[in-house]
Amino acid sequence: MNLMIVKDKAQGGKEAFNLIKEAIDSGAKVLGLATGSTPETLYKEMRESELDFSDMISINLDEYVGLSADHPQSYHTFMKKNLVSAKPFKKTFIPDGLGDEEAEIKRYNKIIEEYPIDLQILGIGTNAHIGFNEPGTSFLQETHVEELTSATIEANKRYFESEKEVPKYAFSMGIKSIVSAKQIILMAYGEEKAEAVNQMINGSITEQVPASILQTHDNVTVIIDEAAASKL
Ligand code: GLP
């Protein structure tokens, strides 16, 4: 893993953006995208850049089950607001939170097969989840519906009016698909991510620490600030 320790989230966004630019210059056509507060500065760089994504494909990691695309907290809304309204892709794929479970899983796996991901952007949960793959999820899992842990519900309740409103399930791209990406950039900021980052980099490779699978990938860049690096 290439480790990059940056001053803050703004600099992290710039570094990640430079890597994306390089990948696109080298022919990358399919970006795997993440949501959450972590990639916000990266998307700002992308929005404000000269880059044109209109001949590229984007595939998002996940979506809450039960939220319609136009729900204010859906990941569809997040992506529109943070990136794709300003910088549209040729095609943008995000799981349909209202879709029939079995059909949606099939559809999403077919999309990932049709458009192999060149570069996957990731954040990390405080429990080291990637996408919505919670601890214990098989490394061989493809797209599926994941039951969110109480730690994730707790961490994400800040976006909702109350904890009760936080969906309990999400569609998530599986770990097998995530690691099939040719290149991966994982970003993490803040002290609350420090233990997950340490386990990901220095811990054993175990399904209890979903992000630890990245130790087996040959092109991963981890961009973190000093607080997230504080337990390394
Ligand atoms: C969310 C998302 C993840 C994200 C993580 C961290 O639940 N499903 O893709 O990386 O949790 O979120 P944040 O960046 O807001 O800390």
Report the β-strand fraction as a percent range: 15-25%
> Biggest sheet: strands side by side, in what order?
1-10-9-6-2-3-5
The whole-angstrom Rg is 16 Å
Q: Which shape, going by the Cα principal axes?
A: globular
Helix percent band: 25-40%
In the predicted model, the low-confidence regions spanning at least 5 consecutive residues are none
Spell out which ligands are present. Answer: 2-amino-2-deoxy-6-O-phosphono-alpha-D-glucopyranose
Q: Would you give the CATH topology?
A: Rossmann fold
**Structural domain count:** 1
The first-to-last residue Cα distance is 14 Å
Structural features, described:
The chain has 232 residues and is of the alpha/beta class. The chain has a single domain (2-201), classed as 3-Layer(aba) Sandwich (Rossmann fold), CATH 3.40.50. It has helices at residues 9-25, 40-48, 75-84, 101-114, 150-156, 175-179, 194-202, and strands at 2-6, 30-33, 57-60, 62-64, 91-93, 119-122, 144-147, 169-172, 183-188, 220-225. The strands form 2 sheets. Strands 1-10-9-6-2-3-5 form a 7-stranded parallel beta sheet, sandwiched between helices. A 3-stranded antiparallel beta sheet has the order 4-8-7, with no helix packed on it. The protein is globular. The site of 2-amino-2-deoxy-6-O-phosphono-alpha-D-glucopyranose has 14 residues, from helix 5.
Give the helices and strands, then pairings:
Elements: E1 2-6, H1 9-25, E2 30-33, H2 40-48, E3 57-60, E4 62-64, H3 75-84, E5 91-93, H4 101-114, E6 119-122, E7 144-147, H5 150-156, E8 169-172, H6 175-179, E9 183-188, H7 194-202, E10 220-225
Parallel strand pairs: 1-10, 2-3, 2-6, 3-5, 6-9, 9-10
Antiparallel strand pairs: 4-8, 7-8
Helix pairs in contact: 1-2
The structure holds 2-amino-2-deoxy-6-O-phosphono-alpha-D-glucopyranose.
